[in-house]
Amino acid sequence: MKKRVVRREGGPNRRSSSSSSPVVRSVRHAECQKNHAANIGGYAVDGCREFMPSGEEGTNGALLCAACGCHRNFHRREVENEVVCESSCS
How far is Cα 24 from Cα 37, in angstroms, rounded to an integer? Predict the structure, then answer.
């Protein structure tokens, strides 16, 4: 019986990478955290809620957000690890 366990990176159930179970990683970029008022000593974000690539994968446009124009690195990164186990996982 296969069982899927989803763990977020850095959580309390973090395991070493020497596991024999196959791990599927999915990366998602959430809200934009770029401080647009940093040069005047303030703090203001643009409200972009999710990264949407401007171009196809493998192009420079894939690294720019279509909604806010920022680079992908300004968006909060969420990594999910899916562990596929043949029997019970603990």
Answer: 38
Nearest one of 80, 56, 76 to 66, comparing CA atoms: 56
Joined together, the tokens standing for residue 2 give 């296969």
Q: Supply the pLDDT for residue 80.
A: 87
Question: Which residue, chain included where needed, has tokens 């420079």?
Answer: 60
Q: Which token pair is 26? A: 């999915």
Contact status, residue 34 vs residue 74, Cβ threshold 8 Å: yes
Question: Counting beta carbons within 10 angstroms of the beta carbon of residue 48, is it exposed (0 to 12), middle (13 to 18) or buried (19 or more)?
Answer: buried
Does the global pTM surpass 0.85? no
Angle formed at CA 81 by CA 78 and CA 84, multiple of 5 degrees? 160
